[in-house]
TrEMBL record, chains A, B:
Enzyme Commission designation: 2.3.1.222
Superkingdom of origin: Bacteria
Source organism (scientific name): Enterococcus silesiacus
Function: Involved in 1,2-propanediol (1,2-PD) degradation by catalyzing the conversion of propanoyl-CoA to propanoyl-phosphate.
Name of the protein described by the UniProt record: Phosphate propanoyltransferase
Catalytic reaction(s) noted: propanoyl-CoA + phosphate = propanoyl phosphate + CoA
Listed InterPro entries: PTAC
Cofactor(s) needed by this chain: Zn(2+)
Keyword Mitochondrion assigned: no
PANTHER family cross-referenced by the UniProt entry: PHOSPHATE PROPANOYLTRANSFERASE (PTHR39453)
Amino acid sequence: MDNYEELLAKLLEKLAATNQGQTTISSSNPKIPVGISNRHIHLSQKDIDKLFGYGYQLTKLKDLSQPGQYACKETLMICGPKGVIEKVRILGPARKQTQVEILQSDSFKLGVKAPLRLSGDLVGSGSVTLIGPKGSAEISEGVVVAKRHIHMLPEEAVLFGVRDGEAVTVEILGERGGSLSNVVIRAVENSGLECHIDTEEANALGITPNMEIVIKKNNI
Amino acid sequence: MDNYEELLAKLLEKLAATNQGQTTISSSNPKIPVGISNRHIHLSQKDIDKLFGYGYQLTKLKDLSQPGQYACKETLMICGPKGVIEKVRILGPARKQTQVEILQSDSFKLGVKAPLRLSGDLVGSGSVTLIGPKGSAEISEGVVVAKRHIHMLPEEAVLFGVRDGEAVTVEILGERGGSLSNVVIRAVENSGLECHIDTEEANALGITPNMEIVIKKNNI
């Protein structure tokens, strides 16, 4: 009898250890739409003035999934010491600080630093020169590779069992599937449920715009 | 006593179910060097003749990690209906059939199909035109996105507990880490141990040339 109890205790211990750090994917987990971003630019009004002329207003081309955000008709050229990238889309509306979101491969092509950052976290980030139809703007700070994240409402965070700022792992099925860890939850009011990744992340894992992903609760 | 045995049986069953499909990463797992490939071209002698002139021999620039393979001095332009990509490196020696390995993003830029394939598996793959210094070659079949794979010797496969042709998942640590499933084991003689991925896969997961990856035995 004692032996059984000892064995049971050991088995339970093993079970606990096995479950720790293990991925628990429930088929009932709600799926999350994916938004795939190519390189793009958010501008301050001061830089809009420099690049397009004083008081210029950006022209909305189409609304994006996040409320109030839109793609603009206007594009710019990004220049770095090693190369240029033409026709990079501007997203509106104007922001407090200019933010240039590029791909990791763009940073090699341009020859600039682009740390992995969440939107708005720009201290010590990279530098480029933007060329517009009416002038250029040297951006001393604001060049980043966007850190993958999931937008959701606070009440959706409760549903998913996650917290604002938490890092989760998402699973991607398919022939080129796998998982992405350190996907940051951004649970604030006025959000549209969407997992934001860039085109390199999408291509590497075979993710297409109509796919949905699943949160694994534990980060790897 | 019967109750204990029943409980034990259930626990063992649960343990087995829990372990099934679970990642088992041992810290003692041998690490595997990573080789990151950008877009590149393998040419048949017939296409070398067309592009560089009859009987032309490619010029070795540097040896690659796989024995007998080398990067050449020569580059070509790849043309598709939607765009061109200049200065694409040729890898030698000449092969039986021309094979153009591009990135998923290149396939959009060129406007061509590029299925995910292992080297040599070219039936029904994509088509482009190559432009060289002495002529062009229309490649009716041979354009692919390289399927990630791990080269190793048969005796290394035994060490890793994998088989030639098996698909495994590899784990990548770091801020942009995660896992890649369906990485095919290629265990043949005269191989150098290396996991081959392309630059989009490397960038998406923060993989740099000096990194090593670990096989998770179970494919997700």
